[in-house]
Amino acid sequence: MNINEIARLAGVSRATVSRYLNNGYVSEEKKEVIRKVIEETGYQPSAQAQTLRTKKTSLVGVILPKINSDTISREVAGISDVLTARGYQLILANTNNNLEEELKYLSLFKERQVDGVIFIATMFTRKHKQMLKDYKVPIVILGQHLEGYPCIYQDDYRASVLVTEKLAEKGRNFAYIGVTDRDEAVGQQRKKGFMTVLHKNKISISDDKIKEGNFTMDSGYEKACELFETDSEIDSLLCATDTMAIGAITCIKEKGLRIPEDVQVAGIGDGALGKLIDPKLTTVHFYYKTSGMEAASMLTDLIDSEKGIHKEIKMSCELVERDSHR
User: Fold this and answer.
1) Pick from 95, 132, 140: which is nearest to 115 by CA?
2) 116, 300 Cβ separation under 8 angstroms
3) Is-contact 224 255, C-beta < 8 A?
4) pLDDT value at position 9?
5) pLDDT value, residue 308
6) Could you point out which of 143, 174, 181, 246 has its C-alpha 20 to 30 Å from the C-alpha of 56?
7) Quick one: 62 and 31 in the same domain?
8) For residue 86, with 0-12 CB atoms within 10 Å meaning exposed, 13-18 middle and 19 or more buried, which class applies?
9) Which long-range contacts (CB under 8 A, 24 or more apart) does 126-132 make?
10) How far is C-alpha 184 from the geometric centre of its chain's CA atoms?
11) Structural domain span for residue 18
12) Do 60 and 206 lie in a common domain?
């Protein structure tokens, strides 16, 4: 079955079928006839021929740092919903938080093997910025703010302020488990919000009560154990992610301390596990799926428009009060 046979069965010209397949103008009457013939015959246009004709692959590359992450899965779900509805297929590239892998996939996708790229970023090195500067396909950055580039990012500073203010209502002896400052969003902005609230409330904190984890539950457990070995009187602990907070809670319970009576604990991100542990985790909700949908919509607009509009969108957040704070 080919386009000539579809034209013969529909009683129209080959050019009319071609316009129909490429979203050109065709009368409603002829559209309906062609649609019925295609439906009855099960005809599928050649993807290779369409690519040669339109110069589009209908593929979008999504570069992500960690595939088994609740945050990432919610973002990818949003991306997938929009791209599927708009006729695109996804190619997922998992980098396992390896910066060299990020650069490899950015390089692979930039030579127009895809129509566009969504880059779920963690940090930007000089090499990243140079490669993005020379990029040949539309790209949207998700999860980080990079001035001059289309991006969707979270209000990490405000999220940290909201949850720290809640802890500061009843807490005085604070500790913090964050991540590397090379990550501007989760590393720098969440720590900055935490420190701002402590300063505002005249609460001092020593350097040995600030630990650096690596996003994992194990690191939350390990760093919490280090903190409570240093000071068993800590009464408030904020973790930069829910995952690390859940690991920290396990350590605190093993030490025989009650949550929140002895120690109040909070995270950021509102992951699924925080709703299941006991006590349920106080946290901040980010609209991750909506962020993914916004990123996909922004990218397809850039692909479809010759000029496009580069937007930088900061998403809102919401404090979620559960049972792990006093």
Assistant:
1) 140
2) yes
3) no
4) 87
5) 60
6) 143
7) no
8) middle
9) 127/103, 128/99, 128/102, 128/103, 131/103, 131/106, 131/107, 132/106
10) 14
11) 3-53
12) no
One-letter amino acid at 75 equals E
Angle between helices 3-10 and 14-21 (to 10 degrees): 110
The answer to whether the beta carbons of residues 104 and 94 sit under 8 Å apart is no
What's the one-letter identity of residue 117?
V
DSSP state of 273: G
Q: What is the reported pLDDT for 42?
A: 80
Q: What pLDDT was estimated at residue 165? A: 98
Tell me, yes or no, whether 234 lies in a domain. yes
Residues of the chain with pLDDT under 50: 48-49, 51-54
The DSSP line for 164-197 is HHHHHTT--SEEEEE--TTSIIIIIIHHHHHHHH
- Orientation of helix 288-304 relative to helix 70-85, angle to 10°: 40
pLDDT (tens digit per residue) in 43-63:
776 554 454 444 577 899 999
Q: pTM to 2 decimals?
A: 0.80
Q: For position 55, what pLDDT does the model report?
A: 58
Do 145 and 113 share a structural domain?
A: yes
Residues 208 and 78: their CA atoms lie apart, in Å, by 39
Please list, in sequence order, all residues whose beta carbon lies within 8 angstroms of the beta carbon of residue 272, skipping any fewer than 6 positions away.
70
pLDDT at 52: 43
Q: What's 256's DSSP letter?
A: T
Residue 155, Cα to own-chain centre: how many angstroms? 13
Judge whether 322 lies within some domain: no
> How many separate domains does the chain show?
3
Rounded CA gap, 259 and 252, in Å?
8
Residue 326 falls inside a structural domain: no
**277 plus 294 within the same structural domain:** no
Query: What span, in angstroms and rounded, lies between the C-alpha atoms of 150 and 239?
Result: 29
